[in-house]
Specification:
111 residues; 4 helices; 0% strand
């Protein structure tokens, strides 16, 4: 997306683009970032929700799957907020899960 601004900055006044061409270039960049990136992240989150059956609690697996659907449908921008909410939820869960973790007791080898 910075290509238009950089070409103007480095090319000076000799670089001219019609507004409709500039708009198309910026929209193609947005579609590439939000389209492919959000779609692939959504698929990864859905796969994580399926694979983390023994690690994540049920509510976190459901939230991960919902965030994955938000990522897949993230091209229109409004469902992508689900990814931010999921990031906050997983962060809070990870902080509290680390505090609950108990170090395993090792039996002494003395006989």
């Amino acid at each position: 997306m910075l290509g238009v601004a950089m070409s103007t900055a480095f090319g000076g006044h000799s670089v001219t683009l019609a507004p409709n061409v500039t708009y198309v270039i910026v929209e193609v960049g947005s579609a590439a970032v939000w389209g492919a990136g959000a779609f692939l992240l959504g698929l990864a989150l859905i796969a994580l929700s399926i694979a983390a059956r023994g690690v994540f609690p049920a509510w976190l697996r459901a939230a991960t799957a919902i965030a994955g659907l938000g990522g897949i449908t993230g091209v229109p921008f409004f469902p992508s907020g689900l990814l931010i909410l999921w990031g906050i939820a997983i962060g809070v869960w990870l902080v509290f899960a680390a505090q609950r973790r108990v170090e395993p007791c090792v039996a002494s080898a003395a006989a």
